[in-house]
From TrEMBL:
Subcellular location(s) of the protein: Cytoplasm
Gene field: argD
UniProt-listed CDD domains: OAT_like
Main location: cytoplasm
Binding site for N(2)-acetyl-L-ornithine: 132, 273
Subunit structure comment from the entry: Homodimer.
Residues modified as N6-(pyridoxal phosphate)lysine: 245
Name of this chain's protein: Acetylornithine aminotransferase
Length: 396
């Protein structure tokens, strides 16, 4: 779709949506779509959710912005709600996941300098994605998105995802490490999960060497995996947790949560944001947190995820070109043997929105409110397309 007034940064699909309702979107022609990607994990409560809509309308009629020169009531309320659900101590609000990750990286460097490390380093993972600012671009493990933007930012060490022995080797040979930054499930990298004991082992390693354990839960947070945060599937407490996406249900907000020694690192003047945590976005975020933490909403996500995965395995499990079905909750990847980007357009024609990441992984991030009937509809569209892909890819 030619849009000459916009910078050419996106390969947009040929559709424009005009409204949404629950798990549905409607385009300019009135065609209805089932949303299987929820704005890349953003619309956790679906479209036009009544609690979020009411919160935004009410707040917009009262006060949009004052700046962080003053106390912001809704910001304090949202921070308290996030700390209550996470066990963390305090929160810094930003406008995006990338900015929240920038805050985490600054916390790591502050911690390193407090330990008299001249050039503090953060260990990051291969295939990671943390954002597109210069620091988070460097922290990401995708050479394709880094190309053309050198020089990158120094102060990062890369390790294989899920390999605790590699981190132990880094600890033995490098005394400049201040923190580890890792996604509990790699989203953009292809929906890769960690070994069951990895986070507990990583927590112990960080404690041993006085590293901050920092989790990027931009995509996995806010109920996506069947717990409010993905680390809550284990018995560990991180020092820093970063989230965004589903927190605002479409309103741009990010949050960097800190615990223990990390919670006192920032002092006035160390960090800030003009728009971060303004009354409007925090009203929306508070509506999201309150909705997710009531009426067993997150427990239902876990059940819906099991139902969806079971359906995928039943229909696709014997297909030789399906190399894996993985994920947790309603964050699911279906890996195929060949690049499969055209499936996105094919699904769009059938009225289903999906995404392909890491070239050959069909990524599903449906709204957390999706029910079993809607999951059955998703399966009835997607599975035949994936099964037919083997013939298409071999013919090509």
């Amino acid at each position: 779709m030619a849009q000459p007034a916009l910078m050419n940064t996106y390969g947009r699909l040929p559709v424009t949506f005009t409204r949404g309702e629950g798990v549905r979107l409607f385009d300019t022609e009135g065609k209805r779509y089932l949303d299987g990607i929820s704005g890349i994990g953003v619309n956790a409560l679906g479209h036009a959710h009544p609690a979020v809509t009411e919160a935004i309308q009410t707040q917009a009629a009262q006060l949009l912005h004052t700046s962080n020169l003053y106390s912001v009531q809704k910001q304090s309320e949202l921070a308290e709600a996030l700390c209550a659900v996470s066990g963390m101590d305090n929160v810094f609000f930003s406008n995006s996941g990338a900015e929240a990750n920038e805050a985490a990286i600054k916390l790591a460097r502050k911690h390193g300098h407090n330990r008299n490390i001249d050039i503090p380093h953060v260990v990051v993972m291969e295939q990671a994605f943390h954002g597109r600012t210069l620091a988070t671009l460097t922290a990401s493990g995708n050479r394709k998105i880094q190309a053309g933007f050198e020089p990158l930012v120094r102060g990062f060490i890369r390790a294989p995802f899920g390999d605790i022995a590699a981190l132990e080797t880094i600890a033995e040979n490098n005394d400049s490490v201040a923190a580890v930054l890792i996604e509990p499930i790699q989203g953009e990298g292809g929906i890769h999960t960690l070994p069951p004991e990895y986070l507990s082992q990583l927590r112990a390693l960080c404690d041993k060497h006085d590293w901050l354990l920092m989790l990027d839960e931009v995509q996995t947070g806010n109920g996506r995996t069947g717990k409010y945060f993905a680390y809550q599937h284990s018995d560990i407490m991180p020092d820093v947790v970063v989230t965004a996406k589903g927190l605002g249900n479409g309103v741009p907000i990010g949050a960097c949560l800190a615990h223990g020694k990390a919670a006192s690192l920032f002092q006035p003047g160390n960090h800030g944001s003009t728009f971060g945590g303004n009354p409007l976005v925090c009203a929306a975020g508070l509506a999201v947190v309150n909705t997710l933490t009531s009426n067993n909403a997150i427990e239902q996500v876990a059940e819906s995820g099991r139902y969806l995965v079971a359906g995928l395995k039943e229909q696709l499990g014997n297909a030789s070109h399906v190399k894996g079905i993985r994920g947790q909750g309603l964050m699911i990847g279906i890996e195929l043997s060949t690049p499969c980007a055209p499936l996105v357009g094919q699904a769009l024609e059938k009225g289903l929105l999906i995404n392909v990441t890491s070239e050959r992984v069909v990524r599903l991030l449906p709204p957390l409110i999706i029910n079993q009937q809607e999951i059955d509809e998703l399966l009835s569209i997607l599975c035949p397309l994936i099964l037919a892909w083997a013939d298409q890819s071999s013919a090509a």
